[in-house]
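Note to self: the last two entries modelled the partners one at a time, which told us nothing about the interface. This time every component goes in together.
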Amino acid sequence: MAPDRPSLRRRLFVQLSPRQWPAEGMSPANKMIGLLILFSVGVATLESEITIYAGNEGIFRTLELLLGGIFLAEYLTRIWVAPEADPDGPAWRARLRFIVSPAGILDLLALSPLLLEDLGPQAFLLRFARMLRILRFARLGQFSGAFAFLQEALASRRHELVLGVCVAGGLLVLSATLLYVVEGDAQPEAFGSIPRSMWWAIATLTTVGYGDVAPITWFGRVCAGFIAVLGIGLIAIPTGILAAAFSDAAQQQRIRKEAARKAHGHHHGEPHQ
Amino acid sequence: MAPDRPSLRRRLFVQLSPRQWPAEGMSPANKMIGLLILFSVGVATLESEITIYAGNEGIFRTLELLLGGIFLAEYLTRIWVAPEADPDGPAWRARLRFIVSPAGILDLLALSPLLLEDLGPQAFLLRFARMLRILRFARLGQFSGAFAFLQEALASRRHELVLGVCVAGGLLVLSATLLYVVEGDAQPEAFGSIPRSMWWAIATLTTVGYGDVAPITWFGRVCAGFIAVLGIGLIAIPTGILAAAFSDAAQQQRIRKEAARKAHGHHHGEPHQ
Amino acid sequence: MAPDRPSLRRRLFVQLSPRQWPAEGMSPANKMIGLLILFSVGVATLESEITIYAGNEGIFRTLELLLGGIFLAEYLTRIWVAPEADPDGPAWRARLRFIVSPAGILDLLALSPLLLEDLGPQAFLLRFARMLRILRFARLGQFSGAFAFLQEALASRRHELVLGVCVAGGLLVLSATLLYVVEGDAQPEAFGSIPRSMWWAIATLTTVGYGDVAPITWFGRVCAGFIAVLGIGLIAIPTGILAAAFSDAAQQQRIRKEAARKAHGHHHGEPHQ
Amino acid sequence: MAPDRPSLRRRLFVQLSPRQWPAEGMSPANKMIGLLILFSVGVATLESEITIYAGNEGIFRTLELLLGGIFLAEYLTRIWVAPEADPDGPAWRARLRFIVSPAGILDLLALSPLLLEDLGPQAFLLRFARMLRILRFARLGQFSGAFAFLQEALASRRHELVLGVCVAGGLLVLSATLLYVVEGDAQPEAFGSIPRSMWWAIATLTTVGYGDVAPITWFGRVCAGFIAVLGIGLIAIPTGILAAAFSDAAQQQRIRKEAARKAHGHHHGEPHQ
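The predicted structure of the combined assembly is written out below.
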């Protein structure tokens, strides 16, 4: 409809900003970046396993530089096109705003391993650099409209969820304290202080139950039994809240879509189901 | 009502195709095949246990051949009656379509152990052949109308479930990476790479908690505690989605049945409950 | 309102039959029997622990005979008053009907330890007799109106629950078979046959995760990881069904109570909440 | 609006009583006390760990006395302002009523460690005193309006929850008895009595599954498998009840807020979302 063809910067901006993309789904550029992120996470995961890395150092090094280069180019492009978001202000301000935005900082953090590479064979730094590369994974969330649905469902129950977390935290501290009192003498290594008891309390209240620590005295087991039953409630409370939240969010989405379809004036011939 | 009696092929087709069967429930032929499948799965299960198999080789061999023969006959009959599904096209095309359909391939796969039997005493092949026999189990799903209800409930929440799986996958990768960074030095065998850490991350996030691997350092345990609490959310999200899906699907089914009963014009005298 | 006082047999019948009792809650006789059952279960539980039993044989023997005598008297009374349920038929038929009813058989089974007591110091028989005494516990279900609510909620979702159990059973067999194929060579003791694998499969799919058996090979762990994630679904399906069932049953109960209150003509002045 | 400035006692009373505070949220005084409670719980937690306590005895001793002094002052102030709750009665009666109220007793209990401090280096008493300090945590519940929401949601399903606990208790006793009968001979240490079996039964039915005790006989494992599957139901029942309760409570709260907003006569211009 527009008689003039938009500039390259404008077209790149529309491609890279999920909210600017007019059609449903993701833009071709973001689809490709998404796939590259998944591929890069897979490479970083396999690279960490020495039995896979050994003998393939060259391949992994090449892939790292290649992927790092692409993501660096993407980052620089995003800085270049940033002024399109605010065409009236000065370009440098829009660019600075992108660089210090959470998305921009996340991008930079995920790029930093490229620079850390040459710090020598310090095991911890290497592992940390790999973790930063895997942080790219979190960038995927920005691209998806479905993620917004999840956020909305969680946000609508903010208060209840915070309350659930507080109740869970209180239960955790009180359970750990109780076992510290009754079991601390018998197993000082595992229950000799409240922070130590907490490892057991978390494993029990979440029903993970590793079994590396467990009460051995009679009274400790009776207390642990009551706490384990309360652990069911701990699961039941957030489950109940989230179940209701998702049910409501999905229903509202359906109502909104139905309303949009009616407002559009004609049914698209899709089966009613 | 039809003045002519339908042909044998037609009658067999109606018996064997769950959707063609006019009455409620399963046809007599499918009921018998269903029971034979259950029996055959039971036989294959017991046969795999050497303490039961030893001394009863003859019985198991006979049962295998007998059941294999019946299922072979069923498979050939299904090929023979296939043209009834498309009476106007050529018979060979309908038959080929059945053979290459998922149901037809599943049938053939479950029959193949009959041929693999003589491959000698190679342990892995024998186990694989038994697994194929147990695949028959999956055929039961085709016979049941209730299975369609389950499918419908899941399909109606396709998007939310895919989203839940993606969030769970992301949480899994990030949890494994975190523990790899903080616990990798202390336990290189269990946390020395991201794929290794993932075994721990799955056991924790699903709350299975085998306990064969668990963090032992202070900081590792603090991180693991946070991840275990997030594991509750991992369970809560699909549970919430499925709870809402089943609730809605069951309600719609009731509304549909109610509508069908009213359309029928008279109440069948069943108690209102 | 009745001018004649009902007979002793009639009054006992009304006291002992939960459905005959006109007021809300349980009748005094059933309340006392319920408490005696709880007490008797507690006695049988403590008696099984040798460190508690040793030195207190006399007390336990006396309590057993006393409680056994009371429950025997209750059983005989129930036989005596049975004809009140069907005043027009012959008395012996109503009594026989009670004796062969599930409730009557359960009563008799729970009494039988009184006779088994003198079978000598055979450990298994003694344990079995104690279990029969604890079966009395199941009798409590008959007394409670709330139990009927639970039954109703479960019955209304009969089909979905049966379906959920079938899906769970299928998943169990297929999981056990898969691990038997991929892990059988590495750990023949734990995964060397499908029944053996099932112990692991149950512990994983229910997320109990004892950790006494767990895959140790790479491929086994990858398969086990997928199965553990499916285990979440296994929990989510019945949870979703039951959540919806309870929600609906509770709502219907409220509607029914509301309707009953309105039909009564006046509000009982209770706060609206 | 009031022409006279209220007395100091009145103003303190309004600050300290969550229900008297006219604005939304907590009063400044209660906010500060809440933070001090959290800080004091953190101090008591860290102090119990000998590796942190050793060398910092002075700091912990000072913090203890300081926090104890503040909470003592708060307690005395609450006693002093208590008559404001009942201005017409005699002052001593209102004060006594506060001292013997649950909140007053909890306050006193949490203060008592100050006096127990000098009882010498008896390990158990020291641990018990620390537990009392952590009991302060429970006081936080009184300050929060959200806690009332949780209480209301649970109270509305009182009957179902009690029923769920009873079913769970029955299942627990019957499971423990069953395993005691079938596994008692093979593992007398872990299953040799019903109370011993109960430790296993709790770990299984709650799906915690420590793995310190697990059946090893064939028949014991078959029984344990059935019980573990029932454990899913044990989780599903309270989860279902709580999910419905929270869903309803949240909906009613929204309806109430909506009604309050309409009654207020004008919309506050907040986005409809």
